[in-house]
Specification:
The complex is a heterodimer of chains A (about 425) and B (about 220).
Chain A (H helix, E strand, L loop, with lengths): L1 H16 L5 H10 L1 H35 L5 E4 L4 H8 L12 H8 L4 E13 L2 E6 L1 H7 L5 E2 L7 E4 L10 E2 L2 E2 L15 E6 L11 E4 H7 L28 E6 L2 H13 L4 E3 L1 H44 L1 H9 L4 H42 L9 H17 L1 H9 L2 H6 L2
Parallel strand pairs in A: 3-9, 5-8
Antiparallel strand pairs in A: 1-10, 1-11, 2-3, 2-7, 2-10, 4-8, 5-9, 6-8
Chain B lengths: L4 E9 L5 E10 L4 E6 L5 H9 L5 E6 L2 E2 L5 H11 E4 L11 H5 L8 H17 L14 H13 L5 E5 L7 H18 L2 E5 L3 H5 L3 E6 L2 E4 L4
Parallel strand pairs in B: 3-8, 3-9, 6-7, 7-8
Antiparallel strand pairs in B: 1-2, 1-4, 4-5, 9-10
Helix pairs in contact in B: 4-5, 5-6
Classes of the chains: A alpha+beta (about 425), B alpha/beta (about 220).
The complex binds adenosine-5'-triphosphate and magnesium ion.
InterPro entries (chain A): ABC-4/HrtB_transporter, ABC3_permease_C
Subcellular location (chain A): Cell membrane
Organism (chain A): Sagittula marina
Chain lengths: ~425, ~220
């Protein structure tokens, strides 16, 4: 496909230059107008880079967020905004979501289609990273079984995400709340020890500190889901009467069919809402598709305009060496040779601009990705795909074919008239 | 090979129906050195361009056996490449190329088989003309040296005819004399026909014949 897109430029090059050796003259033109040539090459590169960066970035974002939602097949919360529920659970963004009570949680956990139902608890942070309460089995699920160290076994132990600043063996006090409003002294008496570390998941959970949900509840002076007779046991099952409530339950279903079935069943209850984050994101992309189209059109228009400006400038530039071109014709150079010189100059400029544009676009996408990854914790990959290379190849070919027009215009001027010019 | 020129009823019309050049009959036998002189604006350049086939004209132009006026534009260009060497008043070299690359210009569009020969001849002419550093960019050459590079370029394809438009006008006396000497020698040596426009009496004195152009009309001058 890329080869096919490059066919026009190769074809023009072969047709124009066959049997000739215009190289030295093309080099002379490039060198003579080196500053202008650099400027044009740079313009072309920037215009193309924008298109490439947008494409690469958009795909990276889509892949990154799809991967982030990977471990979250089904999330259940109270009826409200699907987006808020997804942001709270998958992206650990503080959101306004209601609480599910113990009976609701029990009905989800006891459904045979659910392999695991993990309640989440938020509210605390450590050094800017969210402290999330949940059950040990969910940590195993997120880690795909590859926890370094071990899982938490009591309410003063914690497991950290792969990108956390904490290490196994570290002790820390959680702060109440998030960000600048966090109260660092509220939980002075609570201390956790880090006992395990998750592998990289490419999600915001990589920055999180994960503790037993009982610990979060206890810290806030709530019941811990278990009766006194249970001692210090943590994890499911919970006593519905002693369950303080959870804003989100992540369900690991037994297969994809179970996920859809569960969603339908749970959504029939009027006090619960079940979402498939993957589907919510897909819907989001569908809605954003129009915006993407608009951006794509805008960058294409920019590229077109830049090529137009460069070709018109080349046309004006060619007047500066029109006497030389006329001289070529006067000493017997065929029209096709003169064309090959002028077109060759434009084609080299366009090719250099295109290669620079691809590199620059990739660089911009890489920088944007690392900024996004650092800001959100979502691993946004930046890679050059076929789409971007196709864009570059198509751009180069179209521009090179368009460059025939100024070349023809320059070569066509009557020889005697051009020779008279000074 | 040498070529003579025969013009019959040549007429070049300018825009607005103005007659720029009119020549009822001009014969230049092969190997002749012909000077063309006349007042500014008389039509000398126009005449030379018509002879070279780069300005359209009526009447007949014959180069040897070839009826030049009957050829297509393409064929005329090819004929020029094969048979004519051109020298211009302001040299018209590529400043950013070496003297050698400038001199072997014709090799860049000549048939592959002739390229090596043109390149060799270009080098040879450069050294014969006393240009000892042919790889240097022409930008750093003096006017006299540039005109000699241009002469080497005109001779590289071994043309039968050399056409020159005021080849010494941009040079001082010493440089002009050297170019005149080299130009005449290069044509005499190989029996080339030379048609040179000039106001330079040194150049005109070295010609076999001089024609005077007045208002587009030709008149023979007393041979020098
Ligand atoms: N295409 C054209 N249409 C109309 N007039 C033209 C055209 N080309 C040249 N002329 C005019 O024809 C006249 C002869 O021009 P030409 O350049 O041949 O003169 P010249 O003898 O070479 O003069 P100089 O010695 O100044 O170079 C000039 O008056 C010029 O303005
Ligand atoms: Mg003139």
């Amino acid at each position: 496909m890329i080869v096919l897109l490059l066919t026009p430029i190769v074809l023009v090059a072969v047709l124009l230059c066959r049997g000739y050796a215009p190289g030295p003259l093309v080099r002379a033109l490039l060198w003579r107008y080196r500053l202008v040539n650099c400027l044009f090459g740079g313009l072309i590169a920037v215009a193309l880079a924008m298109g490439i960066a947008v494409l690469a970035q958009e795909r990276g974002l889509r892949e990154g967020s799809a991967q982030a939602a990977d471990g979250f097949d089904l999330v259940v919360g109270t009826p409200g905004s699907e987006m808020d529920l997804m942001l709270a659970s998958v992206y650990l963004q503080p959101s306004r979501v209601g609480l599910l009570d113990g009976d609701r949680f029990a009905s989800i956990a006891e459904d045979p289609r659910a392999e695991l139902a993990a309640p989440l608890a938020f509210g605390d942070s450590h050094d800017g990273a969210p402290v999330v309460g949940t059950v040990a089995d969910f940590v195993t699920h997120l880690a795909r079984g590859a926890v370094q160290g071990r899982l938490f076994a009591n309410t003063s132990e914690a497991v950290v995400g792969a990108r956390s600043d904490l290490h196994i063996g570290d002790h820390f006090h959680p702060s109440h709340g998030h960000g600048h409003g966090a109260d660092h002294d509220a939980h002075e008496e609570v201390e956790f020890q880090v006992v395990g570390r998750l592998p990289l998941t490419g999600t915001p959970w990589d920055q999180a500190v994960i503790v037993p949900i009982e610990a979060v509840w206890e810290t806030h002076g709530l019941a811990n889901g278990h009766g006194a007779e249970e001692g210090t046991r943590i994890g499911a099952p919970f006593d519905p009467a002693l369950f303080p409530g959870t804003p989100a339950v992540v369900v690991v279903p037994r297969g994809m069919g179970a996920a859809y079935g569960l969603r339908t069943t749970l959504n029939q209850a009027d006090d619960m809402m079940a979402i498939l984050p993957g589907a919510v994101q897909a819907e989001l992309y569908r809605l954003m598709g129009d915006a993407r189209q608009a951006v794509t059109v805008l960058t294409s228009v920019t590229q077109g305009l830049v090529v137009l400006a460069v070709l018109v400038s080349l046309m004006i530039l060619s007047r500066l060496f029109q006497r030389q071109l006329a001289m070529l014709r006067a000493v017997g150079a065929p029209m096709r040779f003169v064309l090959s010189v002028v077109w060759g100059h434009a084609a080299v400029l366009l090719s250099i601009g295109t290669v620079l544009g691809v590199l620059l676009g990739y660089g911009a996408a890489a920088v944007l990705s690392s900024v996004l990854t650092a800001r959100t914790g979502v691993h946004v990959p930046a890679a050059l795909g076929v789409t971007e290379l196709r864009l570059a190849a198509g751009f180069l070919s179209a521009a090179a074919v368009a460059a025939l027009i100024p070349a023809w215009w320059a070569a066509r001027t009557p020889v005697a008239e051009a020779l008279r010019r000074n | 090979m040498t070529l003579g020129l025969t013009l019959t009823d040549l007429c070049v019309n300018g825009s607005g129906g103005r007659v720029l050049v009119q020549a009822a009959d001009l014969k230049v036998p092969p190997g002749t050195l012909l000077g063309i002189t006349g007042a500014s604006g008389a039509g000398k350049t126009t005449l030379l361009h018509a002879i070279a086939g780069i300005v359209p004209s009526e009447g007949s132009i014959r180069w040897g056996e070839t009826n030049f006026s009957k050829l297509s534009d393409h064929a005329r260009t090819a004929f020029r490449a094969r048979n004519m060497g051109m020298v211009f008043q302001d040299f018209l070299l590529f400043d950013d190329l070496s003297a050698h690359d400038n001199a072997r210009l014709a090799a860049m569009f000549a048939p592959r088989a002739e390229r090596a020969e043109i390149t060799v001849r270009a080098k040879q002419h450069l050294s014969e003309l006393g240009l000892t550093d042919p790889e240097r960019h022409v930008a750093s050459y003096s006017g006299g040296e540039r005109q000699r590079v241009a002469l080497a370029r005109a001779l590289a394809a071994d043309p039968a005819v050399v056409l020159a438009d005021e080849p010494t006008a941009a040079l001082d006396r010493r440089a002009a004399d050297r170019v005149i000497h080299d130009l005449v020698a290069a044509c005499r040596e190989r029996g080339r026909t030379l048609i040179a426009i000039s106001h330079d009496t040194h150049l005109l004195d070295a010609m076999d014949r001089v024609v005077h152009v007045t208002d587009g009309h030709l008149a023979a001058q007393v041979p020098a």
